[in-house]
Amino acid sequence: MNKKWVLYTTIAAYVLSLFQFLIFRSGLNSKTKNNLGNYEDIININDKKNYNKNYNNEVIDNKPTNIFYFIQISDLHISELYKIGTFSHLKFLVENLLPVISPRFVFVTGDIVDSAANNFVQSKQKEREWKAYNTLVTQSEYFKKHNESSWFDLRGNHDSFNTPDFDHEANLYKNYSITKKDSFHISYVTDYGSYTFNSIDATPRHGPSSPYNLFGTVDREKIDRIANIYDFAKSNNHKHIFSFSHYPSNTINVAKTSDNRTWNDLSKQISLYLSGHLHDLKYNLFLYSHHRNFIELELKDMKIHGTYRIIAVDHDVISFADNVLQMPNIPYVNPKDYGLEDLLKQPKFNMPINPIVLITNPQDTQITLSDNHFPTINPKKLTHVRTLIFSESPIKSISLYIDGEKVSTVDSLSNQNSSFKLIGNDNLKSDEYLPLYAMEWAGNESYNDGKSHVMIVKAIDSNDLVGENTIHFNFNHKQENFRIDIFSRNALRFYLPALIPLTCAGLIILYHIVLAVIPFMYVHNHSSTEVQYNSVEQYEMNSYNDNVSSITSHDSDYSIDKVMMPKKKKFIYRFIIKPFISFASNPYLFYPYHFFYIYYLIGPQLFGNLMDKGKTFKERFVIVFLHGVYANGERVNYSDAYFYIFKELLVQQTILFLIIVYLNHCKCRQCIITIFVHLYLIYFCIKSHSRTFYSYNPLILLLTPFYSWFMVWEILTILTLLTKNFLKYPSGCKKIFKQR
């Protein structure tokens, strides 16, 4: 191969791509102002009632103290288009469930609205959707009782689609959300300790339309604000930090703080990281993970699955339960002719609610904090089993089972000798509502055997509706794996902003190796006489007679070796090596592929008016490169471009590439069946681009090589090869890879 400039160009492209990566990576740290030490944004909520009383936090007994609980919901996707789930699920939660549970806080972790245009693809912030959300929440019984100090929401990627920046008028979140700020940071003070709740807004500062915004970014300015909260919590001896984000931690590209601390340094103080965004990965999965420093719980969506989470903190022991709305059908199907305004006017659902049970002590072993957690939560003496039971009707009986054996002796609460006793207040209208029940229990004596045991609490109300909760406990205070499959408990541990770029780069390198290195290494090692490309076709036609011809042509840029072909060729050579040699020997196929894969490294995926809500050209114009986005005069490094190139290379390009290799090598007419297969695969690849095509102006895509030029060339090449083989070669599918 005499074209050394091909090699030099490829090396230069890789160097330039690395240079681009460093430029966009530095964009995360482009905010040079040191924001550390600024505590102005902290919201102080003081629930301290008795400043003189000393609460005993070392013994977990039958006193209704040292406990609070809150609810998390995520991915509501309120939509004026979708008629299944979404707004009806939220309406049931707000009007039917919250008055029964009455949590201290409700946290909404993003994707409040769906922002889909009428074609279900294009992104557009819709005022009707935001108004419906705001009206439902602010006019609810729960909100009127607890006001703004109880409801906090944050943005998800759907809430920031097509918004040039947070302060832009296109950002309807700042007008109709409850928080109205890009993040919330709460210092919650009680008689028995202080706690921190903070949000991490990982939405890009400049939000293009779907399908981008899939991954999150936290630049230096944002991470400094987060560090301020964690530093404040540490200096004020806060016992737990609960961090909320729409994006799971493994989908966020995080900068370092101004004093050079990393996310791993900061996360040592987090107890729970609570997120959404991934729904159930389309396979009905619960995604929980134990990280080195903290526990992460991703929550299924409210949109389709109607899932909500209750988290309780009892004597600093954390417990949680992910529950599904008790509606007749999940997802609930709305009447087709009902809009959001019609649903708002409907009375609340007339559906019974089974008792909702949450065991708060002993602690479930799967939620035991890491040994690296700061501050250390020391084990406490446990004298009672404690459980929260939320119910519309009075609780009639409570039963306790351990390892399948009934432990409670008297279940009926009407009996003064009942095992469980109400130690809180079950009056739904009371400001002191706390449906807490306790049973005296010497578990540390009977079950302190180094093993894990299964505890079930079952509650029955006056309408004979049943609710129960199951935990695993031990007295070693050792963390155990989540009781889900191995993929679900490890999925959140793969750091995608590092994994996807490496995988993407590996695929591009692999394509270059397959295109050139493997065929020419094989030829170099198996022959000594060169024959030019133009002889290949004639050679393959003559090889049906097991003869070898030597024909040369000075016009070809590539050469392959004349090889005395053995009568019995190896399978790998006939079906894999030879087709790629034939492909790499054809400059009309090799050059386009080689240089388009170079383009993937350095060229823009998209550029143009990607945020049509911007007022100026600077706000509207966006360039998307492999390593990041340049928008509104700023460069941001995030992983969306890697992800879409990875999908492109793994699916569409693999299919089209193998078709071209196959058609270039085989020398016969295609069967009708194979022709239809080829056409269907072409249709599949075109359809996979339809979402991106409709999300932006089609003219933008036509001007972008990544999404249009290369695929058009591939499709035309496939059709040309099909036609050429049909006109030039004999029929007979069996001769496609005939041994020659």
Instruction: Report on the biggest sheet.
Output: 7 strands, mixed
The first-level CATH class of the largest domain is given as Alpha Beta
Strand portion, in percent?
Answer: 15-25%
The low-confidence parts are 528-541, 543-565
Please report the number of helical segments: 19
Could you say which overall geometry the principal axes of the C-alpha atoms support?
Answer: elongated
Can you count the beta strands?
30
The figure for the number of domains is 2
CATH-assigned homologous superfamily of the largest domain: Metallo-dependent phosphatases
Domain TMEM62 Ig-like: 354-466
Organism: Piromyces finnis
Protein name: Metallo-dependent phosphatase
Domain Calcineurin-like phosphoesterase: 70-280
Walkthrough of the structure:
- By secondary structure, the chain is α/β, with parallel strands linked by helices.
- The protein has 2 domains: 3-22 and 497-528 and 566-737, no CATH class; 47-494, Metallo-dependent phosphatases (Purple Acid Phosphatase, chain A, domain 2), CATH 3.60.21.10.
- Helix content is 33%, strand content 20%.
- The protein is built from 19 helices and 30 strands.
- The strands form 8 sheets. Strands 1-6-7-9-11-13-12 form a 7-stranded mixed beta sheet, covered by helices on one side. A 5-stranded mixed beta sheet has the order 5-4-3-14-15, with no helix packed on it.
- Strand 3 (67-73), helix 2 and strand 4 (105-109) form a beta-alpha-beta unit.
- Keywords: Membrane, Transmembrane, Transmembrane helix.
- Pfam families: Ig_TMM62, Metallophos.
- Residues 354-466 form the TMEM62 Ig-like domain.
- The chain crosses the membrane at residues 5-24, 494-518, 571-591, 641-663, 670-686, 706-727.
